[in-house]
Give the backbone structure.
Amino acid sequence: MMNLSRWKVIAVVLSVIFGVLFTLPNLLPQQTLASLPSFFPKQTLNLGLDLQGGSYLLLEVDTDALRAERLVNTVEDARVTLTGERIAFSNLRQQDGEITLTVTDPDQQAEAASLLRNNLGAPIAGTTGGSDVLVRTEGEAGIRISFVEDAVNAEAARAVEQSIEIIRRRIDELGTKEPTIIRQGVNRIVVQAPGESDPERLKDVIGQTAKLTFQMVDETADLAAAAQGRAPPGSEVLPMEEGPTPFIVVRRRAVVSGEMLTDARQAFDQQTGQPVVSFRFNSQGARRFGEVTSANIGKRFAIVLDGKVISAPTIQSAITGGSGQITGSFTPETANNLAVLLRAGALPAPLTVEEQRTVGAELGADAVRAGQISTGVGFVAILAFMLVAYGGLFGGISVIALLINGLLIIAVMSVTQATLTLPGIAGLILTLAVAVDANVLIYERMRDEIRSGRPVISAMDAGFSRAMTTIIDANVTTILAALIMFQFGSGPVRGFAWTLSIGVVTSVFSAVLVTQVLLALWFRAARPKTLPIV
């Protein structure tokens, strides 16, 4: 163990260079860092919400609205399916989470039920067959349509996961670094955005469903009936954001949806100079949009965002290029926000803000200052203990190893762009304390070997070889606990676990390998007859 192998020296030298290079950017002013050559590492530690300040939101995914929307869509699918096969029906309605209808000709009941089974619903995830929609006959002419409960719950869970990913994309578009977005409970999401001091802006961007559809205007609808909220079958009354009337009647079936967009950008209209949102469809959306506009020249189509009609222009000619503009009463900021929402995608269900908090930068600065003081006090206490217990040489070597350990922790967290939180600082301090445990075990084993009469070189070698089992056992159990906290914890718990995990790995490296190389160099130079720690 005390042989000064070349690979050990190289590993220690490289680790020190790595630690210095990737820790240094955290100590340099931003202006100096920007002036350095491009090849120089420039990643710095990301400070968490409690250290940097920012916004905290607790959101709830409205899974009931998701189910209600699925019911409405299924009603329309059932209407289109039966009408297309010329099967007359009546009393098509939704009630208590189910859909019921009556077939006019009882002899067609079985045929209608079979058609609905084949055309409604989707395969249940994780199975080789079966649909998530149940179609049952009742009486002589009745049909009842319901959803498989397990499939509904699975769809709600997918909606929450999808919402997390969309929220992440939207926040990334804002330029916020290292947001924390985690699931809490069944249908809640916690969002922590360090550096974002305006929670209202955050809510505007991530809370809007941003469901965009293009629907044909129903020109045949009775406007008097529509004013009272009544629309023909297959149509719906939607509010107008601006226009000569406060409402408009549109076909329920969307001809093109926002999922077919590939890009959306804030721009300015070349004729009016007003802010607009330019968009582009994928190949499927471009083809469908071209077909619809070609077949409906002279008619109007509505651009619908979250159930409100932004505009309803008249189709002057076929739009086959796959791109267009959304006009409205936009400012450059609102147009840019809408473009951000459209690029990130629509939320599968509405979000409700259950709780919001703002952490001021001053509070974060106080936390950083307190963390620096506590880390400094901890380091001084460890330094004093090691020097008193093991003298200037052995105690000093353990302190050097501890400093290298600290460099490696900061460097690894900078490279991985990990977020440092206040509990993470606690994990850092705990790591510093635990790191010298390995040195204590090694030194105490050396003392025991010297007392038993073994020569210096054998005692030093035994100190490392016989203490390794205990060191590995102690650190493996620690890292397992940290991994469990990281897997099942959230927020501050995960920050603590991440720092602790990095610290365990670097502390074993520094306390064992760095100490061994330094002691081997001392032994080769001094050739001592006894150890100073005895």
User: Anything to note?
Assistant: Residues 60 and 469 are 49 Å apart (CA to CA). The longest strand covers residues 351-359. The chain is about 50% helix and 20% strand. The two ends are 20 Å apart (CA to CA).
